[in-house]
Amino acid sequence: MILGKWHNGSNGTIVGKDVHVHGSSGSSWTTREVRNQKGWPDAGEPENIFLLDPAEPRSFEATIKAMPRKHGEQAGLYMHANAESWVKFVLEGDGSGGVSLVLAEQSCASPFLRGKLSLPDFQGSVTLRLGRGEGGQAEAWWKSVFEEEWRPMTRGSGWLEPSELDGKLYGCLEDEDPRGNTTALCKISPDSRAALVTEQWQDDPAEVSFLNVSHT
Which structural domains are found in the chain, ordered by start? Predict the structure, then answer.
């Protein structure tokens, strides 16, 4: 069985249904020009995008084994159209030793954080699933390695929708806001391909594994 192929060169190893890489310093958020304007580290596209075969499964999943150390370090599942348009469901470091699950989309270089959940009991791995729902929307589920039942990814502390801003320029859902319990959904860009990606890793290379990669 062919698991997939590298989008930008071979930057890891494949063993059966497992993919092992080092965290990439690249970033997919907005564009390189915008990131430089904001004073963020100058980095191009993530260097180890692994495109799965088939390209557009109904859903795909993997157990992500990683220990993000600094703010923004990420690893997870993507529906990748190009550098400016994607959906991602990732494990992300917060810079203080904690990690969160993040579901976000980007279209024409404009990103939006649909859902964010803290994982206070994270122990080094989590299983993620990303699927294609009705109306061109992406749905996401997750579970710890000790659980059998999938949990839907909810909005949590994701960004407020434009209709919810009530005069503010931007904002996030607060703790205990009931809207945070609703399912988070993303719009899928045309020609998006299922992919495994790491991005925004800093300093010494860190090992990241995508285990038991599968699709339906």
Answer: 4-34+44-155+185-215 (2.60.120.200)
